[in-house]
Amino acid sequence: MGRAVTVATCALNQWALDFEGNLERILRSIDIAKSKGARYRLGPELEICGYGCSDHYYESDTLLHSFQVLEKLLVSPATRDIICDVGMPVLHRNVRYNCRVIFLNKKILLIRPKISLANTGNYRELRWFTPWSKARQVEEYFLPRIIQEVTGQETVPFGDAVLATKDTCLGAEICEELWAPNSPHIDMGLDGVEVFTNSSGSHHVLRKAHARVDLVNSATAKNGGIYILANQKGCDGDRLYYDGCAMISMNGETVAQGSQFSLDDVEVLVATLDLEDVRSYRAEISSRNLAASKVNPYPRVKVNFALSCPDDVAVPTCMPIQWRHHSPEEEISLGPACWLWDYLRRSKQAGFLLPLSGGIDSSATACIVYSMCHQVCLAVKSGNADVLADARRIVNDDTYIPEDPREFCKRVFTTCYMASENSSQDTCNRAKLLAEQIGSYHINLNIDAAVKAVVGIFSVVTGQTPRFSVYGGSSRESLALQNVQARVRMVLAYLFAQLTLWARGMPGGLLVLGSANVDESLRGYLTKYDCSSADINPIGGISKTDLKNFIQYCIENFQLTALRSIMSAPPTAELEPLVDGQVAQTDEADMGMTYAELSVYGKLRKIAKAGPYSMFCKLINMWKEICTPREVASKVKHFFRMYSVNRHKMTTLTPSYHAENYSPDDNRFDLRPFLYNTSWSWQFRCIDKQVN
């Protein structure tokens, strides 16, 4: 009868504008899909050019090269006898669309433009594309000559249609359309579509994966059907990490799950499913069938091809599985580690340098690099030839095989403790012990000579010598002296990143890692152009609370016992003089708020869209057991003063791994002024009125 259909989806580590690499990975995924018997292959959103092209979408070159890649796919023997569904930008009647191009045996079946564009948070699709607004309508698309010469077609259908094969009906969604309240799969399912496809460019956020899985499963739970989701994976050139999770679901249950974090550039999932299971599932949902009898039909593109074989009675079909989610600590260990690996190999640098202070933030960053080394060794052990080739190029040794994470860490990771007269022996010892346990190449140096030289220049010019407040200086003098230390560390970090390997007789340079967490950035508790100024920052989107939990995870899973003393020590910048050899300065005292409070402020400000007054109104209820309304008002005012005074620092914030939805990243996620009226007089007066 032809009941068992075999379909494939994939997660590809595509790279913006890497047309050659993207083509190779697409072809590899098609080869794997065919070798496993698939008759249909789905790829990620905009996979031909890479999702993160941004304003390069405006360029005619991007469109031209995408069609050139499409031409290579059409003529490749790999694409024979399998329906291929690929993503690329297409210009139709001088309007640019985000499209799926679906083809079979050198013939384009349909170009399906995206209907609902992602335009929140990190997404700016409306900047580059126009949504297709003609529901259930198709137009003629005139193919470029290079494609006409291959397909023999002058025009092809362009618009909102579905494919009718010999045995079933397929309908496409693109990423955001799954998340929209009026998802196309609803009406498509009512119109008899049995197989839904979704090509995504969905990035990682802590604790987000379950939402995507639930949406896919719920799409077919009420309406029946098979749902296939493909996703981008890896770092394709910016702050986002696309976290794979390709999946196949049927009738509300997952039947195939792809990995969320992996160093494999190409991952293909294949499932064989029984169409009769969809039909019998739908048969008893009377409300669905009543709605289906009234639905406005979709245009159908007839395809003389089947996803099943005629004699398939004995073909085994896939059974439901239980989705396995990572804990937030595992996500922190794996996501930023994979992002760092992509950045390292694609930037063609020789490793990382991290100023390691012995505190929680820089130690967490070091642990993420160590986790990266773990992932590399595991990938090589499992036979990943791409990772092995990259590792050999990075360490400049054609025979090298990374087997021990500590040994590999020694080759690619340099840590540096930059002591001053205000540093304690405790933090020095903690940094040294952690470096020993993870295996990094560790440097101890003292910055006092450089600090004194810089301050000395100021003294010669002005005749004034600034002093710390504990020695009778003003707060301005004390802050300036702290900032000099912090900025000298940044200069030295870049000097050592450029020349450490040279001094050791090795080629290449190092990428400087920053380690300011999302809460400190939000509050502005950092020196502009200090060690927070780096090439990239793997923890810049992660809260202090989550980082502490991650440190505990590393103690238990990586046996890094040095982290115990780091966990128990109060966070400190160590920029003010010691008192009796002990640290007198702590972060939370300096900030005037706790890290736990900062996380609450951050979520209310960004996720709940709360200004000062709304935040006060929410917190008098949230904190009614621990604070009076007047205390809440004082805390909210202090936060907004500090946030607005320091917002200018976000304009130069080091590019950070995006992991939290309350990130203050000024690049494109959190767009705000950086010159505020910091008195907030009207807003604070409204708060005072309510307090009184």
From TrEMBL:
The keyword Lipoprotein does not apply. It is an enzyme of class 6 (ligase). Residues 5-275 form the CN hydrolase domain. GO terms for cellular component: cytosol. InterPro entries: C-N_Hydrolase, C-N_Hydrolase_sf, Gln-dep_NAD_synthase, NAD/GMP_synthase, NAD_synthase, Rossmann-like_a/b/a_fold. Pfam families: CN_hydrolase, NAD_synthase. SUPFAM superfamilies: Adenine nucleotide alpha hydrolases-like, Carbon-nitrogen hydrolase. It comes from the Eukaryota. Its EC number is 6.3.5.1. GO terms for biological process: 'de novo' NAD+ biosynthetic process from L-tryptophan. Keywords: ATP-binding, Ligase, NAD, Nucleotide-binding. Pathway: Cofactor biosynthesis; NAD(+) biosynthesis; NAD(+) from deamido-NAD(+) (L-Gln route): step 1/1. NCBIfam families: nadE. Homohexamer. PANTHER family: GLUTAMINE-DEPENDENT NAD(+) SYNTHETASE (PTHR23090:SF9), NH 3 /GLUTAMINE-DEPENDENT NAD + SYNTHETASE (PTHR23090). This is Glutamine-dependent NAD(+) synthetase.
